[in-house]
Every structure is written in C-alpha cells, then in structure tokens.
Amino acid sequence: MLKTYWFNASLQKKLVMTYLCLVIVPIIIFSCVVYRAYSNSIQSSVNEYANETLRQITLNMDTHLNTLAQLTLTPYFLEPYSREDALSIWGKVAQNLREQSDLDKWTSDFAFNSIMKGHPEVVGVYFFGARGQIYGHLNFGYVPEGYDIKQAPWYDYVNNASGKPVFLNVGMPSFVVDGYEPMFATARQMYDAQRRLLGTFVIFTNMSRLNDIAENAQLKHFDKLYIFDLQNRLIVGKTGNPEENRIIAELSQKGKEAAGQVVTLNKQTYRVTYGYSEFSQLHSLYLVPSITLFKQQRFVFYLILGFVIFSTMISFLIFVWIARRITSPLKQLQLLMIDVEKGNFDVVYSVRTEDEIGRLGASFNNMISQMRRLVYEVYEAELRKKQADFTSLQHQIRPHFLYNVLETINMMAEIKGVHEIGDMISSVGELLRLSLHRNDYGTVGDEIRYVQSYLSIQQIFHKNSLQVSIKVPDEVLELRCNKFILQPIVENAILHGLDCELGKQTIRIDGALEEGRFRLYVTDDGRGISESRMRVILEHLSVEHPESIGLRNVLDRIHLYHGGRYGLRICSMEGEGTTVQITLPVLPA
C-alpha cells in the first residue's frame, strides 16, 4: 500500500517526503542524541559533585575523629603532676570510699586538664577496668558502680578492634544515670606492655560537632545526608516518617550496592551516592533529588525542542517554496500536454530559465512546432494523394461499352482472318480490363501482366523489331505494389529511348529482393540521355506537376504511399541506353 501511494503521489509530495526522511528525521535523531549525551553529562557531573561532596565530608569527619582517636591515647602518657600515667593510677582498685573519692577526683582533673580542655564537644571520660573498677566524669549523669561494660551492645565491636579506636553512636545509654543528651563514643581497649588487657577507655562527645561538619559542607537545600556507624546506627541525618526510616535503613544495609539507586522519599525521587571510610568505618548516603538533574535537563530539553521546531519549520517552508519552484513549471508543462492530447497544438511554454526544466520546456516547444509541421505535411500529403488518385482515375478509360466494342471488333477481325489486328485488339482489351479495377494496390505480377499486354501491342506496331526480356523472381511477383508504376516507365523507354528503325531494340525488366525492400529495373539499349537532357528530367521530377501521368506521377504516388525513402532512380549514358530503378518496401500481398 505504501509503495502504491509513493508511485501515485505527486512530485511535490515525493520531494517533501524525501525531505522529511533525509533532513527532519536526522535532525530529530541528532537532537535526541545530543539531549541524551547532555543528560548523561549532567548526571555524570551531579554524580561527580555528590561523590566529591561526600569525600570532603568523610575527610572532615575523619579529621575530627582522628583527633578523638589521638585523645584516647592520652592515658598512655605520664601525667605531669603525679609523674604517673593514668593507666597506672586507674589500675588500682579502691579499698574504701575515700580512695574511691580520691581516684574519681583525680580522673575528673585528668579529664578537664588533658582531654576536655580545648575540646568543648567532649562531655565525658570514663575508664572501665578489666577488674571491674570504674573511674570517670560526665558533665551530666554518671555511671553507677558495679556496671559491667561487657553488657553494652557495642562492646563486641570494641573488643574485636583489639586496641584500635572504635567510633559509635551510643545515643542515651541505659547505663548512664540522669543522662539527657545523645552521645557519640570513641572507645579503645587499653593494654600494658605485655599486651594484657587493662580496660576500656571511652570518650563521650555530643553530636553537635558532627552535625556542624555536615552543615559546613554547604549541601543544597533539597539534598539529604545520612552517616552511620559500624552498627548501622544513624549519626548524622534526620528521617521524617516510618517509611523513610525503612528505606534509609535498607539502603544502609545494602552498603555499596545502594550506590546509583533511585528511591522515592515523600513523593520526591533521589539518586543515591554511597561513601565509606576505612579509618572510622563510618558509611554515608548522600541523596541528590532528581529535580536537580531535571531542572537543567528540562531547560536543555526545551532549548533543543525549540531549536528543532524553529529550524524544522523554517527549513520546511524554504524547502516547500523550492519544491514549488521546481514543480510549478512541470505542472504547467503537464497542463500544456493535456491540451495537446485534446488536439490543441497552438500552445507555447514560456521558458524563463536555462536549467534542465527550461531546456525541457524548450524541447517541448520544439516538439509542438515539429508536430504542427508534421500535421500540416500529412494534411498536404493527403490532399496530394487524393489529387494524384483523381488524376490517375481521370486518365483511365473506364467505360465498359468501349471494352465490349473492342471485343466485337476482335471477333470480326478473327472472322475476316486479320489476325494481327485481332491480337492488338485483344491486348488493348486486356489493358482496359486491368485498368477497370479501382484498388490502389495490386501485385508485382499484375503489373508485369499489364506491361506484357502493352508490350505486345508495341511489338506488333514495330513489326517485331522490339525485343522484350522479363526476369522477375517468383517471390517478387507475389509482393504488393502500387498500380500502374511500370507501364509509364516502359512507355517512356519506347517513345524516348528506342529507335526501332535502326534495328532490333531491347526492353529488359528485372527484379531483385533485398532486406526489407525490393527493386524493379527497366532497361533499354537505346540512344541514352545526354547530360543536359538529364538535368531537365531531374528538374522536372523535383517540381510538382499535378497533371502529370508519367514519371512524375509514379514518383509522387510512391512518395505519398511509402515516404521519401523509396522512389525512382535514373541511370543513363548517351549512346549506351538507360536504366530506371524503382525501389519499394516489401508488402506481402
């Protein structure tokens, strides 16, 4: 169906459809590719920005946590006032309340002077000894005596670290009495020189410093940042509802697999970036809202779309204008051809250009001019043909009574014994009988019989001094030809070429068949034709003579019926004789 529509469509439609396929479609595809590439570039840029932001936050976190980790090593160093390190002091077990009070006071002084001074985020310091001793200080609340640190849910992480610092969100631990603020713990197990466990040292800090680090990262308004400790407990970030809590928890559990995922929180989609610190073992999720991507993508999309629509409309209008400029002359030619089909040859195409269409229009004008000339020539030829037929008929003896009279005379001549007169009258009667047929065509055989009758009369007239030789192949005798084309030539040969008083003269008629045509030759051995006479004859043949019934009549009828390719040719030499050649097309009878 599409193929049929294409073949039946106008040239202008084909040009427009070709334009759509070759120009508009590639523009649209190219625009889509550009938009896709730009979107990927924007997405890559946003991902790179998110990764860089997350790396910077992680670096700042690690810097702060490294400071806390360094503080957890303080008990290993000598205390400047007592010349003892804190571990040696904390390694003692109080025997009474006074010793316990002295050790608590020493620990408080140690915490203020060595750790909390210059670090306002530190809210407490505690040492949980391997033999059950507990020494420490908190700005709010306290840890009761007899508490076993091994009962803390995060103790296993500290124990598995084997002396390395562990960073934990302990929230508001149940072992702190009168505590009212969530805390972040930096814990480390302490060993003596023989790698014997002395206890666990914990520095408690508030969450403000960690939150400040996240806020100083200057996150965009709609971005979300979540930082988790190795327990997958949230350190930084807020969740608004249970569904959000569930999604964030699932992403935290997935770890690296969460990177690149798209999630929906509060009807807003986010793209997830994942980060992890080998030092602190904290992992983070940075959620960038899709609107951050879509804003830039939407702007570029509308820009490209506007460009495509504008350029398409402008180029389409220009192309339609060009297509009309090309097809309008062709439509004009088509209308003129329709007029010609209806028989109106008085049309002219106005040629305004010299391109292919202009040359086509000029050729059309030439063709119409040639057609007008040919129509006129055909008309004139028909008139000449009718005139020639009329002239031929005028000079034919048609009356039947004359034929009957000649038959009567012939019978009387036979009765009286005058046989020569009977033969002549019989030949004349045959001539009259053959001439009574009004068909335009006969066969070569008919023409030969007609000429034989005529030559019989001439032989009697010339007392047998005229010799006749007819050699025409049988295949030529069966071909069609115009009537009465041989007799005028034979008559001219006898009247103007032969002189029978000088002796025997010969008329020879030959025929030959060639490819697509045949030739008849009428040859005499008479006096021939001089050059001056030949010029007169040829001039006579080149000028129309409507009344002529001789050579000119024969030539005109051959041209009228068969065209200029066929006709007569005269070859003669003075004193040697004359040959007239007749060339006709092969037309089966």
The residue ranges in which pLDDT falls below 50 over 5 or more consecutive positions are 393-401
| Percentage of residues in helical conformation | 40-55%
- The best one-word shape is rod-shaped
Total DSSP helices: 16
Number of domains: 3
Oligomer kind: single chain
Q: Give Rg in angstroms.
A: 65 Å
- Can you count the beta strands? 19
Distance between the termini: 52 Å
- Describe the main β-sheet briefly: 5 strands, antiparallel
Classification by helices and strands: alpha+beta
Output mean pLDDT. 80
Task: Work out the strand percent.
Answer: 15-25%
What is the spatial order of strands in the main beta sheet? Answer: 4-3-7-6-5
Please describe what this structure looks like.
The protein is α+β, with helices and mostly antiparallel strands and 589 residues long. The protein has 3 domains: 10-337, no CATH class; 345-392; 439-585, 2-Layer Sandwich (Heat Shock Protein 90), CATH 3.30.565. It contains 16 helices and 19 strands. The strands form 5 sheets. The chain has a 5-stranded antiparallel β-sheet with strand order 4-3-7-6-5, with helices on both faces. Strands 9-8-12-11-10 form a 5-stranded antiparallel β-sheet. Helix 8 packs parallel to helix 9. The chain is rod-shaped and about 200 Å long.
Summarize the structure in short.
This protein has 589 residues and is α+β, with helices and mostly antiparallel strands. It is built from 16 helices and 19 strands.
